[in-house]
Design goal:
alpha/beta; six-stranded antiparallel beta sheet; five-stranded parallel beta sheet; 5 helices; globular
Length: about 240
């Protein structure tokens, strides 16, 4: 797969909601070289006066042919780029993208070891790309997503995750609500704990690959829990933002 350092024209062809504020954007990029699940992309906006702003976003879906690029954006209060992408960039408008970027935090469909995904909030985006890549490849590798979020209204990719759980094809999701769980949810609200990650089939003896993504403090906390449980540090891959 070719990684390009050139800026490519990307046209917004669709935008749809993930939550009340978060949005997924789909761009057509005619010269896109393809990408691996877990990689990210730089997005550059240029104002009429020539001012430019660049931000990095994880790719939230695997490659679709050689032209579609999908990112999911949570607007940052008083942010310069994310609110514009989420709400104001018109469908049909062009931006520039550069990538794919990153070769460490990736999953390849030919791998067969168990995979534990640990997401904090919007950090679920690149992990969703891995889940979708697994589904498209009909891969036998068992996947487990542990998804930490504040409340049910912040759940991204809800229909996809519900469908994957219902299909029972070896990909499952466990939720950790830190502030307000759904009514009747068995786990009380609270921070991610070691017991949330101590799951049969994904224990250290099973030698899973562990991918952790989210805000820096969450990633450090989750990675420390995994190490404390006995997981091989060489099989823990992290991606952080903030």
């Amino acid at each position: 797969m070719t990684v390009t350092g050139a800026w490519l024209r990307a046209r917004l062809v669709d935008r749809f909601p993930q939550t009340a504020s978060a949005r997924t954007l789909v761009f057509a990029v005619p010269s896109w070289p393809g990408h691996l699940a877990g990689q990210h992309v730089d997005v550059r906006l240029t104002a009429d006066d020539g001012y430019q702003a660049v931000r990095s976003y994880s790719l939230s879906a695997p490659a679709d042919g050689e032209s579609a690029v999908q990112i999911s954006v949570q607007p940052v209060p008083d942010g310069e780029v994310s609110p514009y992408l989420a709400e104001a960039l018109p469908v049909g408008a062009d931006v520039q993208v550069r990538g794919p970027l990153g070769g460490w935090f990736v999953w390849r469909p030919q791998w067969r070891d168990p995979v534990m995904l640990v997401a904090g909030g919007s950090g679920v985006a690149p992990l969703m790309a891995m889940l979708r890549a697994r589904e498209e490849a009909s891969g036998p590798a068992p996947f487990r997503l542990v998804y930490s979020l504040r409340d049910p209204g912040q759940r991204w990719f809800a229909s996809d995750l519900d469908r994957m759980d219902a299909d029972r094809t070896g990909a499952s999701t466990a939720y950790v609500y830190t502030r307000r769980p759904p009514e009747g949810f068995p786990r009380p609200a609270g921070r991610l704990t070691a017991s949330d990650l101590d799951v049969t089939g994904w224990r250290p003896a099973d030698r899973p690959w562990c991918y952790v993504c989210g805000p820096t403090a969450f990633v450090e906390h989750a990675a420390n829990l995994l190490v404390g449980l006995g997981h091989d540090q060489a099989r823990i891959r992290t991606e952080r933002f903030g």
